[in-house]
């Protein structure tokens, strides 16, 4: 018997006005957008109409960044916002980004478990380990940790959070009015933890989730990050700009998961993908060109140079990248990976000018085309072991999201590659990582 084709996983990576840096400029008034809960609820309901797996909110814990002064960016605490969205949706997953090296594991355990309860099993925690200057400044920290120390610290954080989620098992809630006994403490599993960075002695005063633990996502780029993700995560959010690099990444992390005794099928790889949909290829390109025309090309050139780790003066607009100057080793793993991905995508194909409009600031692959072309590409990556699906970025919401749902999603549904309806109550079950 032949195996049915793999089901594709699709999240919406919900950004303020959308992934395109100029999207907000085309709105009548974006002044209140960052804090407009009604807008986010509207977009979330639309994503649920398309039966997407989850809504994913990236987040930056920190002071104003370059991004947030140049356009409406992040603002609302994602866990609070998702709790509001939970009340207006019934099936879609809710993925909140919270750091694992700042703050308190106890507070995070309670927050995410609370989101899981108020959403009846739809919460996920996206674990991040960033320590960029706006974060360090805001938190009054002067020094960044080296990679090894950072992941040791994050490992302690996650161990405590997951331990706390298991600390009050359902069976410990004996609920016995005749004995004035609600919780039988002998059945709890207190977390007594004395680590290098964190310590706690606690039982979480609520069960760790509506039906089992919330889902764990993780976002990182380095080899150390892959090891960490393969240990802890159910799904990895990653930037992969070519199929070949994505295949390598997937094989690597799934291999690591197997080494840890895990089922590699239960570690999902979900690269970011920015889609621009049109009825014809020409219409899709025209839509993008219209938005691109409102971008600041000088700024983008600086961004490209930064991502490549060279001076902007070394880049010539209508020529290819100076590849011979791009081979020196780089210390910063994120820049090194950006450089590797940009080179793999651009060599022999794109000039510097073309690269500028290729989602530099978001880092994710751009796919422009008709519903069929986009559906084909998505299925092709999944069939060829490059990913299990995608974290979808939309150029501008809500109209770009409508086109994605009515277009590529509908095509994939018709082909039996994407759900026609939610099958289960919890995100963990719907994602196939139960
Ligand atoms: C696809 C992707 C998404 C990320 N999303 C966020 C985010 O929303 N907020 C954040 O502060 N850091 C984010 N990060 C940063 C990572 O958590 C991490 O700090 C960074 O990749 C550096 O760690 P590494 O060198 O181990 O990869 C993201 C990284 C990747 C690769």
Structural class by secondary-structure content: alpha/beta
* Average pLDDT figure: 95
Radius of gyration: 22 Å
- What does the overall shape look like? globular
User: How is the main sheet built?
Assistant: 8 strands, parallel, barrel
| E-strand count | 13
Enter the CATH topology name: TIM Barrel
N-to-C series of helices and strands: EHEHHEHEHHEEEEEHEHEHHHHEHEHH
> What is the top-level CATH class?
Alpha Beta
Task: Give the terminus-to-terminus CA distance.
Answer: 25 Å
| Total domain units | 1
Bound molecules: flavin mononucleotide
User: Which CATH architecture is right?
Assistant: Alpha-Beta Barrel
Q: Helical percent range?
A: 25-40%
Strand content: 15-25%
Low-confidence stretches: none
CATH superfamily: Luciferase-like domain
What is the helix tally?
Answer: 15
How are the strands of the biggest sheet laid out side by side? 1-2-3-4-9-10-11-13
Binding site for FMN: 59, 97, 151, 222
Organism: Microbacterium allomyrinae
Keywords: Flavoprotein, FMN, Monooxygenase, Oxidoreductase
EC number: 1.14.-.-
How do the strands and helices of this protein lay out in sequence?
Elements lengths: L8 E5 L23 H13 L4 E4 L8 H5 L7 H9 L6 E7 L5 H14 L4 E6 L4 H6 L8 H19 L7 E4 L4 E3 L7 E4 L4 E4 L12 E5 L3 H10 L2 E4 L4 H17 L8 E10 L3 H12 L4 H12 L24 H14 L5 H5 L8 E5 L1 H13 L5 E6 L4 H16 L12 H5 L3
Parallel strand pairs: 1-2, 1-13, 2-3, 3-4, 4-9, 9-10, 10-11, 11-12, 11-13
Antiparallel strand pairs: 5-6, 7-8
Helix pairs in contact: 3-4, 4-6, 6-7, 7-8, 13-14
The site of flavin mononucleotide (FMN) has 20 residues, from helix 7, strand 10 and helix 11.
């Amino acid at each position: 018997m032949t195996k049915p084709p793999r089901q594709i996983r699709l999240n919406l990576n919900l950004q303020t006005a959308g992934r395109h840096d100029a999207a907000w400029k085309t709105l009548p008034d974006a002044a209140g957008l960052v804090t407009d809960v009604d807008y986010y609820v509207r977009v979330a309901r639309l994503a649920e109409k398309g039966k997407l797996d989850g809504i994913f909110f990236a987040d930056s814990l920190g002071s104003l960044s370059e991004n947030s002064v140049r356009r409406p960016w992040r603002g609302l605490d994602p866990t609070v916002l998702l709790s509001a969205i939970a009340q207006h949706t019934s099936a879609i997953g809710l993925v909140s980004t919270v750091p694992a090296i700042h703050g308190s594991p106890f507070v995070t355990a309670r927050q995410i478990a609370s989101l899981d309860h108020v959403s009846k099993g739809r919460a996920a925690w996206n674990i991040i380990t960033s320590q960029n200057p706006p974060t360090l400044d805001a938190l009054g920290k002067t020094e960044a940790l080296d990679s090894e120390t950072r992941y040791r610290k994050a490992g302690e954080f996650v161990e405590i959070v997951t331990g706390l989620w298991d600390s009050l098992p359902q069976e410990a809630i004996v609920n016995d009015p005749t004995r004035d006994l609600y919780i039988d403490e002998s059945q709890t599993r207190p977390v007594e933890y004395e680590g290098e960075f964190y310590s706690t002695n606690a039982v979480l005063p609520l069960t760790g989730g509506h039906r089992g633990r919330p889902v764990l996502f993780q976002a990182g780029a380095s080899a150390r990050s892959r090891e960490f993700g393969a240990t802890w995560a159910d799904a990895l959010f990653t930037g992969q700009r070519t199929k070949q690099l994505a295949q390598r990444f997937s094989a690597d992390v799934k291999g690591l998961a197997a080494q840890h005794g895990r089922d590699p099928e239960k570690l999902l790889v979900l690269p970011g993908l920015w889609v621009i949909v049109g009825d014809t290829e020409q219409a899709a390109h025209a839509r993008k060109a219209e938005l691109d025309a409102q971008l600041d090309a000088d700024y983008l050139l600086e961004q490209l140079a930064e991502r490549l780790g060279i001076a902007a003066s070394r880049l010539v607009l209508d020529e290819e990248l100076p590849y011979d100057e791009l081979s020196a080793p780089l210390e910063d793993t994120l820049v090194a990976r950006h450089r590797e991905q940009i080179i793999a995508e651009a060599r022999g194909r794109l000039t510097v000018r073309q690269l500028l409009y290729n989602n530099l600031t978001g880092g994710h692959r751009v796919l422009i085309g008709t519903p069929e072309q986009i559906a084909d590409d998505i299925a092709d990556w999944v069939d060829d072991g490059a990913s299990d699906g995608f974290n979808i970025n939309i150029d501008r919401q809500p109209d770009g999201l409508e086109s994605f749902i009515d277009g590529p999603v509908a095509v994939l549904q018709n082909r039996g590659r994407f759900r026609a309806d939610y099958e289960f109550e919890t995100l963990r079950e719907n994602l196939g990582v139960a």
